[in-house]
Amino acid sequence: MADTQHDELEASTDIDAPPAAVWALVTDVPRMASWSPQVVHTRVKGGVVRQGARFSNLNHQGPLLWPTAGRVVRFEPHRDFAFRIRENRVVWSFELTDNGRGGTTLTQRREVPHGISQLSLVMTRFVLGGVGPFTRRLERGMQETLARVKAEAESA
């Protein structure tokens, strides 16, 4: 379990669908609320997800709501999709790998190349229940997100 501002989080799953099908799901940013238990709504500026695209999120934890702004920082079709959240400086990514069995290994990461912003850490400590508990919720949320993407991809 990670609980510091410099720890990367990671979760993976194998999906019985080709990388192109999984890519179409994870890059459909407006649908992230369908998979992530933290995201309520996402709106992409200009409507097209690509390198440099910007979007806004509304997130929640119980009754608490907060907005964030994201920007796509990596966009390598069928392989790597990542976006940076302005408020906390973290990068959320999805790496897709052909698993050699006609399916895809999907890995979701929370990358912290520049640490987490002090403002975000303070808000997490005093509003969202503390860094440790919040991080554990993120880890569970990553597992839920991957399970929901997997279910959607395999039902297509």
Automatic annotation (TrEMBL):
This is SRPBCC family protein. Gene3D superfamilies: 3.30.530.20. InterPro entries: Polyketide_cyclase/dehydratase (IPR019587), START-like_dom_sf (IPR023393). CDD domains: SRPBCC (cd07812). It holds the Pfam family Polyketide_cyc2.
